Amino acid sequence: MLAKYYSFDECQNRDSVYDHLEALEEEGKIYFESIDEDIIRIDDCTLTPKEVKDLVKYLDENDVIEYLDYEDESDDFEDEEDDFDPFSEDF
């Protein structure tokens, strides 16, 4: 299973991994973005189960590690934004 966040902290081949991810993004298979220097967020758009397995294996082989404990502050903001009601009495 593809995680949402990955750490490049241990990766020695960043350029190669970024090239691979950019190729997948150009194909419309994934969307990815750098959160900061060592963390990326990956969203699966149209990967098949085999492609997910291959990507996870590729990331693992290149020491790009799942970052399960990372919490993106923008995710929290989006949740709060969804609850915003400009017509409520609390406004």
Chart the SSEs and their pairings:
Blueprint: E1 5-7, H1 14-26, E2 30-36, E3 39-44, H2 49-61, E4 65-66, H3 73-83
Antiparallel strand pairs: 1-3, 1-4, 2-3
Structural commentary:
By secondary structure, this protein is of the alpha+beta class. The protein has one domain. It contains three helices and four strands; from the N terminus they run E-H-E-E-H-E-H. A four-stranded antiparallel beta sheet has the order 2-3-1-4. The termini are far apart.
Q: How would you state the average pLDDT, rounded?
A: 86
Task: Figure out the total of helices.
Answer: 3
Percentage of β-strand residues? 15-25%
Name the strands of the widest sheet in spatial order: 2-3-1-4
The radius of gyration over CA amounts to 16 Å
Largest sheet report: 4 strands, antiparallel
Task: Give the gist of this structure.
The protein has one domain. Helix content is 41%, strand content 20%.
Please tag this protein with its features.
91 residues; 41% helix; globular
